[in-house]
Amino acid sequence: MGKRIIQQARGKGSLTYRVRKKAFTKKIGYPIQQGDAKILKILHSAAHSAPLIKAKIGDEIFYNAAFNGAIEGEDFKIGGDEIKEGNVLPLKNVPITTKIFNIERNPGDGGKMIRTAGSNAVVHKIYDNKIGVTMSNKKETRLNGDCRVTIGVIAGEGRKHKPFVKAGRKFYKMKAKSKLWPRTSAVKMNAVDHPFGSGRGKRIKNKTVQRNASPGKKVGHLRPSRTGRKKR
After folding, report:
1. Ranges of H-type helices in 113-159
2. What is the pLDDT of residue 232?
3. What is the DSSP letter of 226?
4. Given 3-state DSSP classes, what are the helix, strand and coil percentages for the chain, each rounded to the nearest 5?
5. Which domain holds residue 138?
6. Are 54 and 66 in contact (CB under 8 A)?
7. How many Cα atoms within 13 Å fall on the side-chain side of residue 218?
8. How many C-beta neighbours within 10 Å does residue 62 have?
9. Residue 202: inside a domain, yes or no?
10. What CA–CA distance (Å, rounded) separates 173 from 18?
11. What is the pTM of this model?
12. What's the number of domains the chain is made of?
């Protein structure tokens, strides 16, 4: 009788593979209201690499990644067109070469891109109905001008300067984020644990899986949408 491979076991959930829920209690996002907001507190979140700011606008409380130079009790603005570190405004109101972070992929989603400590993107070019943004990987992404962004650079840039030194520290750091670590290479496993496992028969074989393969068995190269020469 076989057993579940690692991907299936993690998806099922067990004592071994359990998410640390209390690490993910704070969600980054933007408020619906516009106007003057105030930083209530700068805090640490185990699920995020950057420090967070707890802010309030009216009766609404929200969280955002802290920017360089953030101070508790400081005021900033949601909406408008004032270019100041920490302000949140639509991408269409941001001048070219301005550094930004926590960028919305679609207007109103609360920010999905550039949220890692020390990272930022740069407004690159204005097109007819899109705004070109150079991401941290130097690639350009074109976005809707109504997508909201935060002005500045995310705090915590030096987090990678200090090495972990010991494997134990890395283990507990990854555990806090509910990450499986260390990751074992599939070819080093037994055949019962993974389709790539076992060292027997070192033959080159196709690693393309079916597109409708069940979760946990979709390992290797995904099946292309079509193959062969296109007929006219």
Report:
1. none
2. 65
3. -
4. 15, 25, 60
5. 22-159
6. no
7. 8
8. 21
9. no
10. 15
11. 0.79
12. 1
In a domain, residue 153? The reply is yes
Residue-level pLDDT at 221: 77
Nearest Cα residue to 104 out of 147, 138, 140, 72: 147
Neighbours of 55 (CB within 10 A): 23
Tokens of 46: 């185990």
- 3 state SS for 43-72: ECCCCCCCCEEEEEECCEEEEEECECCCCC
Query: In this structure, what CATH number is given to the domain that contains residue 53?
Result: 2.30.30.30
Spatial strand order in the sheet of 121-126: 60-65, 52-57, 35-43, 75-78, 88-90, 148-151, 99-101, 121-126, 131-134, 140-143
What average pLDDT values come out for the chain (232 residues) when binned by 10 residues?
A: 72 79 91 94 93 95 96 94 94 95 95 95 92 94 95 93 93 86 84 77 68 76 75 68
Pairing of strands 121-126, 60-65: unpaired
Report d(CA 186, CA 189) in Å as an integer.
5
pLDDT at residue 184, rounded to an integer: 85
Q: Which two tokens stand for residue 55?
A: 């802010």
Among 220, 196, 223, which residue's Cα sits nearest to residue 210? 223
Distance CA 214, CA 207 (A): 15
Domain membership flag for residue 192: no
Q: Is residue 133 a contact partner of residue 123, using CB atoms and an 8 Å limit?
A: yes
Q: Is residue 28 part of a domain?
A: yes
